[in-house]
């Protein structure tokens, strides 16, 4: 029996709220496998099938919330400095917030024992820091440092509007979906690379992208099948990512993934990107 009993797995490849690039996939469970019963960038059954603008996306996800896990490939928590409620900033060097302290220790380890970076010419401190808790979360640093996968920073260049939309959706759906209970932050690129290694890095923006995706899905065919047009998923970045988001949720439920034991409290507060564990 699965470690967590859910019957529906929803995956969202989130785009900008004013654009047409959001895709939603719905997978349903059957013994030992899941089926893709819906995937697309437009709302099914809504007259002229409009894109997944906010109110339509919320309505659609709510319709399948019973016994469902929702996986979204965008930040579902803000950075620790943005969440800060202190009356004044103590600065990164003196803040005792557990996540900021984690960043200090991690950056020091990455930089040879000193949380600052010395200029290699005359010993002055001047080079850019390797991680900052006002633009990044601890899970993003872990993904890069421990797994060699570079994620998009929560408040990095161009990510602010997407992060804001994801946080809005989390609030709008919080009566049905709770973070790390039936709401997951995922990263399709990381899921694929953990499952299939270096080949998965070519699943986007490469000459053989379509063929790579076809091979990846073939390797999953024992536990992932399609009731919808598979080729349409292969040819659309957003639909493909939405399916992988939902499939990641299925694996999370089936295999009982847990937050890391080390620094668990930090990740529980700061956010976690769920990826398959090491083989």
Descriptive labels:
Nucleotidyltransferase, domain 5, 279 residues, 7-stranded mixed β-sheet, 2 domains, alpha/beta
Name given to the CATH architecture of the largest domain: 2-Layer Sandwich
Taking pLDDT < 50 over at least 5 consecutive residues as the criterion, the unreliable ranges are: 117-124
How are helices and strands ordered from N to C? EEEHEHHHHEHHEHHHE
Q: Taking all residues together, what is the mean pLDDT? A: 90
Main β-sheet, spatial strand arrangement: 6-3-2-1-4-5-7
Radius of gyration over all CA atoms, rounded: 20 Å
**CATH fold label of the largest domain:** Nucleotidyltransferase, domain 5
Domains counted in the coordinates: how many? 2
Fraction of residues in helix: 25-40%
Structural class by sheet pairing and helices: alpha/beta
Number of H/I helices: 10
**Main β sheet profile:** 7 strands, mixed
- Portion of residues in beta strands equals 5-15%
Cα-to-Cα separation, first versus last residue: 21 Å
Tally of DSSP β-strands: 7
**What is the chains' assembly state?**
single chain
**CATH class category of the largest domain:** Alpha Beta
Question: What would you call the shape?
Answer: globular
